[in-house]
Automatic annotation (TrEMBL):
InterPro entries: CWH43_N, DRAM/TMEM150_Autophagy_Mod. The chain crosses the membrane at residues 12-34, 54-78, 98-116, 122-140, 160-187, 207-227. It is a multi-pass membrane protein. It is found in: Endomembrane system. The keyword Membrane applies. It comes from Araneus ventricosus. Keywords: Membrane, Transmembrane, Transmembrane helix. This is DNA damage-regulated autophagy modulator protein 1.
Amino acid sequence: MSPWAFMRVNYLPMTLGVVFSLGLVTCFVVAVLRGDVSPYMPFISETGGKYPEAGIFSIFLYLSSILGLSTMFTRFLIVDELNRGIDRTIDILNRSSVVIGFIALMGMVVVAAYPMTSVPTAHGIGANVLFLGGVIYAALQTWLSYKMTPYYNGTKICHIRLAITILTATALIVMSVMMPIAMKFWSTSKHDHWTGGKLPGEEGFDLMVVSSVAEWTMAIMFLTYYFTFIREFQKVCLHLRVQMLVQHFDEEPHDVNVAVATERTPIVM
């Protein structure tokens, strides 16, 4: 019964970064070349607001959500193995953060499923859950990192994660404040194109650009935060073990409580 071994799982956050970045760049280039958006800092969702780029946008977001959840769960397992229930606060932060992270990524799935031009309400709810949940996840993980000092990690990585969290939260606040104001100005006059095609000189253009820059900054900061796990993941090996309870699938297992060997299990029975 040899387990599947996954050596150095640092490829998880690295792959997430590649997939997510490739998706954003691809959608932006396609949307601009097709004339669906202007090149003046469109919102991320606007680059995937119309087809065919909307399909590309959804595919990359789905893949990113899977990779993101895998990274979060791997981080959870690592901390759980290190702590082993010794510090209750670490356990609480570890479990809370993975739950919040899962909820945030479900927001990403909603964003992928409902482009902003099809069901804007659902898209907006998903985006809010994603952004707010992502910031809370980063904050909890930063707090967790400080709690793990000095026994499991140093203070340098804690300070780095704190700086990223502050920048991400600041970007979220800027976007949350500026976007409604920008949309209010935009709606004061008639346009022959949607917000994705905004041009300099139009009402609310400057505020939209500020909001968009904040959103792109937030996305980059999220990826950067994931990248802080790479060094830790390089020092971890995950095992996937299958324990068969029967030899034939028409049989019923005699004992569902499979004994697991521990350090106290006698070598000779």
